[in-house]
Amino acid sequence: MRIEAYNQVQQVYNTKKVQHTGKTEKATKTDNVQISSLGKDIQVAKQAVKNAPDIREDIVAPLKQQVQNGTYDISADKFADKMLAEFA
After folding, report:
1. What pTM, to 2 d.p., does this model score?
2. Is the pLDDT higher at 17 or at 38?
């Protein structure tokens, strides 16, 4: 191990010591944030979506009951038309 090289590097770093400066004045400025009305509307909409249930029971419950009773009937033609409209 070469100690001379370490000493030379240490001398380079020691030559630039930090000099203490006088006291600085405190900054009196403060930051302000203003949210636009559109931003507020988006916040309200996000909160409404967050509070909404994942499953709309008022729509799902009657369909679930029809499937369990065996009375749920769907026209194959209507189903095919909707599939073609969606993917065409």
Report:
1. 0.37
2. 38
